[in-house]
Hints:
The complex is a heterodimer of chains A (about 400) and B (about 400). By secondary structure, chain A is an alpha/beta fold. Chain A contains 15 helices and five strands. Chain A has a four-stranded mixed sheet with strand order 2-1-3-4, sandwiched between helices. Chain B has about 400 residues and is α/β, with parallel strands linked by helices. Helices cover about 65% and strands about 10% of the residues of chain B. Classes of the chains: A alpha/beta (about 400), B alpha/beta (about 400). Strand 5 of chain A pairs parallel with strand 4 of chain B, so a sheet runs across the interface.
Amino acid sequence: MLKRLLHKFFHFLRDMCHVWAREMRTTVKDEGLLIFFLLVPLAYPLLYSWIYNNEVVREVPVAVVDMSHNRSSREFCRLLDASPDTHVAYYCNNLAEARELVGRQEVRGVLYFPEKFQTQLYRGEQSHVGAYCDMSLILTYKAIYQAVQAVALQMNTDIRLEASTAVTTRDEQVSSRPLDFDEVPIFNTTGGYGNFILPAVLVLILQQTLLLAIGLSAGTAREQNRNRELVPVSRYHGGIFRIVLGKTFCYFMIHMVMAAYITLVVPRLFGFVSLVHAYDLAFFMLPFLLSCIFFGMTMSCLVRYRENVILLVVFTSVPLLFLSGVSWPQSNIPGAWQGVAWLFPSTFGVRGFVRMNSMEALLSDVRTEYVALWIQTIVYFLTTCLVYRRQMRLARRKAASDSQAA
Amino acid sequence: MHCIKQIYQIALRECGIIFHNPIYLTCMVFFPVIVTLFFTSLMNQGQPVEMPVGVVDLDNSHTTRQLVRTLDAFQTTRVVARYGSMTEARTAVQRNQIYAFLYIPQGTTAGLMNGTQPKISFYYSSTSLTAGALLYRDLKTISTLGSAAVGKNKLQAVGKTEREVRAALQPIVIDLHLINNPWGSYNLYLSNMLIPGCLMVFIFLITAYSLGTELKFGRNKAYMAMADRDIVVALCGKMLPQTLIFLIVVYGYMFYVFGVLNFPHPGGVVPVLLLGLLTVLAAQGFGIFIFGLIPSLRMSMSVCSLWAILSFSMVGTAFPVSAMSPALQLTANLFPLRHYYMVYQICIFNGFPLADAWLHLLGLVLFAALPLVVLKRLRMALLTYNYQS
């Protein structure tokens, strides 16, 4: 009894390793597959890091239309020019001239001081400064808006202090700001674009390259097969589990290395935030990679020709990035799309990794995502087995009818 | 006359292929419609509202509770939880339950009364940049308002009028004008780049796919024979039905966002129509060019997809091109989507004359003309190539 079981197990292992080795061999030989298994995971993260390496927008050009021409407006412009985010590039005589500069992309915003700017200030009235922002780029708008607000706040404080009757400096401080406050950027302290988007993009690259590579390899297998079947009829392809597990080992082996490179090496190369703990990361990546692999293997059965995979997978990258709740806050994704998001491993992979990487969350803090990934792993493993079973039956039936015909 | 008939014949053949293989209409019509509906419905709010924020109120007095209530009343913010300590609040941020929190230490109200300048703090996470930026604005406003309220009470007590109080507290006021997007809507900011970007992905890929499958299925020789081995006729015939379908899809998208959703387009209809046409032609031109350069189905499609995905970053909508390194600023011109976005924002969104975007219009025209460079190569490939799997 025991001997028979052992024998069976040995056969299982042998077949699985055979499928594994066979899959490895086709992968290494196929240049199309190598692009998505090696080149893209290796090169793309570097490219993205390079693109977003500057993190923030500095010295956004602004045009000034100063109709009042006096000390106060000039002081405002000086302060604005001195702030790190903005740069006073042009002085114009009227708004029409400034508008033309916006049209030519020379400036991103216009500051307008009306004629009575200083007069009103000295009269003790409220004085208005117009700030016109080009809204085609949100980051430049944000830079201008924040710089202008900061300058106005500082000048307001100065004006109030001049008018104050306080005796000591401390008195002045208290009267100008009775309630003090501190602004603390708790995570992503640079407020940088790279630190914000890169962790999400990295995880997404892992998933998309896996889906593409698995789909392409399935397509190739089908095209090389005589009957256009996914599973060849051979003595090693006798059971579902050995085929599915054998292939999984091959993909997992390659992408484990890629995942380590992408999640640990790339952020360090470019100096992006990386607060992740190796132990937690390893535990988290295991279900993520497995669910991606099984998801890809389930999908790969839909593919008739290898190139169709590219058509189906590539465009989903951007919608998936948005569904993960990084660009658009997770709390504000409409319910129906939340449901769609749950179908994809990247949703939970991105959410979990971003928090572990950028906020130093521990595995216990991303428990929801972690559990969801394991559920996905199990569900997609079952669906993979189901579709492979169907494929095997189809393949056998065809092979049988072929031999009868012969 | 003869060649028009040939083009017509080839176009008919192409229609047959398009309707026979479901992947074509899926990628040319179904997915673009899904993507359009996806992005416009996802960001339907325009700006994220009612984002979860926490409060650590150790003072718990009438004054601080009022501060928290005012914060809750802001459109962007919703106070969802109160925490007993900093650590709890920080953990809540790490668990994604809140994006920011306000910390009010014990003795804040007492400090305000006896004039010792107490200090409150707000903590915000920019891990989601949109949420971080918007909440930063609200939290900063509420913290400044805290001071203003004290100042207002004091000034009112000595008999100043409402107007005088306002002038004393805020002598300089910034009138902010968000040109053409006064709501600061992310929907009309991002959808106008993301959806055309996805449409371009499909045009790139379908163009390369339709040419490549001729080789793959060994139909290339029959195909060229229909055109009397004239590559220009062959290409025109093949691309014509695709161009028409893509034009309908692109114009359909534009009608939906500008006509139905009423996204601002002070530039008027002419630039919209022109840009739609140029977008389709430029993307097709790019697809043909890549296939002519690498006449292999999978390689050309791989290159097209890698290029198309990079466009979403190189377009410089979310992270401006001007902030990238100089080498990348030049490289950005190699992406059709970049030119699309520049023409869109200059001529349609901001309503400046087409002349202001002439360089980018020229860029799109050049992309549309790119196939001319590889005509010879493409002809060779289609005439002599034998597909080996």
